[in-house]
Specification:
about 450 residues, single chain, two-stranded antiparallel ribbon, 19 helices, Hydantoin permease, binds phenylalanine, about 0% strand
Length: about 450
């Protein structure tokens, strides 16, 4: 893997980086609140189905295309399919840019909470729900912390694949796991915690409807970092002898575990404090603070500070993968230097993120941006709806069509067989091929139409 483009030093390096990309705010901030808004256990079940039936085959496809072409998403589709297909890659890169624009804002919130917990008097508050609303409406803090976050992301991406991305992921992922487990154990000892467990684990099937199903699909793609080329990009740095199926499975399991644990952490806390699970984007910020407050101050600072710091790190390994996508495009296709690509993109993405930041009360226009689905949506809601709920599964749909009709499953099998010689002829191969050629195009195509209808014409 000693090419000019750089590469991961080992299989573990790739898995750590790809899992780092997958595990992030999507798992710890978003998954619990989306699950809470969509009925709990029933949502969890649909989510798990999407992850393993559709997510895993698409992930294998993305990594294989990346490794085969050694390119960014645009270059990859262009090499294998010509100019028209390259537009699919370009669209993915644009989604990455838009996702990072709001992701960086939420990362800034997490960073701000970390600072406030360790240095401030946040625990003197009594109502953390209104505290959160005021906090996100205050753009001065948010501006500062999200600038810091973007600068750190840019610095790591500038450092390049091996030193920056891989090293950061390897240490931080396991630590995050441990702190989650610790808070879960503590949470389960609290009064009424069991109601949270029930809400989270005992499905009420009458709660499953069209909206649950497509929210779960978008959430699955987002959480696994699929549908916009992040894993094509990371796949382009993986060694020829690595086993793609193994790596993809490990990444998928890790990501699902962290999301699952985040839910298991949050819902008992929410119920033990008598809060509502459908609190929305503030859920993690509100529920956790209430619990930390019950601890002796110094412990609260250590556990609370530790939690938000790790949340920042989890977010960071995702923001670097998001920024790496447009950066690798500019380096490969426009022959920009890494430093130029990183600085220009970081500034542009930060600016695109400003309306998202200002849409929580600071500026009315962005707070009540558009009206649909029976309510006013914030600017951030709209970006999320367009660039991940709709676009990521659409990206997966186009990818599966691309593999089935253009690249052909034969080529996919050949690529996957490198590093996994028993793959060709195996049952697993037949399964993945069947999913990619028939199930993904059919199901994702149907879901795309339904999502658009539900969202904008219902
Ligand atoms: N998967 C990341 C998360 O769960 C977000 C992400 C989406 C990262 C798409 C890269 C690409 O937080």
């Amino acid at each position: 893997m000693e090419s000019k483009r750089g590469g991961f030093s080992s299989k573990l390096g790739f898995v750590a980086a790809a899992a780092g990309s997958a595990v992030g705010l999507g798992n710890i901030w978003q998954f619990p609140y989306v699950t809470g808004e969509n009925g709990g256990a029933a949502f969890l079940l649909v989510y798990a189905l999407w992850i393993f039936l559709i997510g895993l085959p698409i992930m294998v496809g993305e990594i294989a295309i990346g490794r085969n072409t050694q390119s960014n998403p645009f270059g990859a589709f262009k090499k294998l399919g010509g100019k028209a297909w390259a537009l699919v890659g370009l669209f993915g890169i644009i989604c990455g840019v838009m996702i990072l624009s709001f992701y960086n804002v939420v990362s800034g919130w997490a960073f701000g909470y970390f600072i406030q917990i360790v240095s401030g008097d946040i625990f003197e508050e009594s109502n953390f729900s209104s505290y959160f609303s005021n906090y996100v409406a205050n753009y001065e803090d948010n501006l500062m912390y999200s600038i810091v976050f973007m600068v750190i992301t840019a610095f790591i991406v500038y450092k390049g694949i091996k030193k920056g991305i891989e090293g950061t992921s390897k240490i931080l992922m396991p630590t995050l796991f441990l702190i989650l487990i610790a808070i879960i154990i503590y949470g389960l000892t609290l009064p009424n915690a069991i109601d949270g467990v029930k809400f989270y684990l005992l499905p009420d099937f009458s709660l499953i409807n069209g909206a649950t199903i497509y929210s779960a699909l978008g959430q699955a793609f987002f959480s696994l970092s699929l549908g916009m080329g992040a894993l094509i990009t990371y796949g382009s740095y993986i060694g020829k002898n690595d086993n793609i199926v193994n790596s993809a499975t490990l990444v998928t399991i890790t990501d699902s575990m962290v999301a699952f644990l985040a839910g298991l952490m949050i819902f008992p806390l929410v119920f033990s404090q008598g809060q509502s699970p459908s609190e929305g984007p503030g859920l993690v910020f509100v529920a956790l603070l209430g619990v930390f407050k019950t601890m002796p101050l110094i412990i609260a600072k250590i556990v609370g500070g530790g939690f938000f710091l790790l949340l920042c790190f989890a977010a960071l390994t995702s923001t670097i993968s998001l920024l790496e996508v447009p950066v690798s495009f500019l380096i490969d296709e426009k022959k920009w230097s890494r430093i130029k690509a990183v600085s220009v993109m970081a500034v542009i993405i930060f600016i695109i993120g400003l309306p998202s930041m200002l849409g929580f009360g600071a500026v009315d226009l962005f707070t009540e941006f558009v009206y649909y689905e029976g309510e006013y949506k914030t600017f951030m809601d709209v970006v999320q709806d367009i660039f991940f709920v709709i676009s990521l599964p659409l990206g997966g749909l186009l990818l599966s069509i691309f593999i089935a009709w253009q690249w052909k499953v034969k080529s996919l099998s050949n690529e996957v067989s490198n590093g996994y010689s028993k793959y060709s002829g195996s049952l697993l191969e037949k399964y993945f091929n069947f999913m990619i050629v028939y199930i993904c195009p059919l199901v994702l195509g149907m879901m795309f139409v339904l999502t658009i209808l539900q969202k904008f014409f219902a």
